[in-house]
Recover the amino acids of this structure.
């Protein structure tokens, strides 16, 4: 598509020489618009009770990453960025969680267990909410999405005392 931008005094009804304004810049790289396929556990009554509040508050952009379309059996999945960082509300509880363990820590009012056993992704799962919220983050990126979303999760999903799974 070509668009001509006319400067002052152009032939667009003005009183000038019809010069075309010069526009320059770097083209933006195309964004991956393909949907992110997300496997989700079955939806439970607890998930249906807690997750809509969180999903309605998720931002279109977080930690510099823009939202992506999601292909999932659950309405409680969301993604940002490329490579995708995927949130699932109502996820399975983390296996191997130990209260006070080295892999569990609190950020902005949410206690997270981080599973780093897969070299390609880090799986962050809340352990102090009535339903677990999980964020899968490629290991090539930092945990800024989980950090940025912690206050939203803390405000939307009720607290429960962490218990070992």
């Amino acid at each position: 598509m070509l668009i001509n931008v006319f400067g002052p005094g152009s032939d667009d009804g003005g009183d000038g020489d019809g010069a075309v304004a010069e526009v320059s810049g770097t083209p933006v790289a195309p964004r991956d618009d393909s949907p992110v396929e997300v496997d989700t556990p079955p939806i439970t009554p607890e998930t249906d009770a807690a997750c809509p509040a969180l999903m309605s508050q998720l931002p279109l952009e977080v930690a510099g990453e823009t939202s992506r379309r999601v292909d999932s059996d659950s309405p409680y999945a969301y993604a940002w960025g490329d490579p995708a960082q995927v949130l699932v509300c109502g996820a399975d509880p983390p296996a191997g969680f130990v209260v006070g363990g080295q892999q569990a820590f609190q950020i902005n009012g949410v206690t997270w267990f981080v599973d780093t056993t897969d070299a390609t992704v880090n799986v962050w799962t809340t352990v102090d909410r009535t339903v677990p919220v999980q964020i899968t983050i490629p290991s090539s990126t930092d945990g800024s999405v989980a950090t940025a979303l912690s206050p939203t999760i803390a405000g939307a999903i009720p607290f429960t005392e962490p218990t070992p799974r």
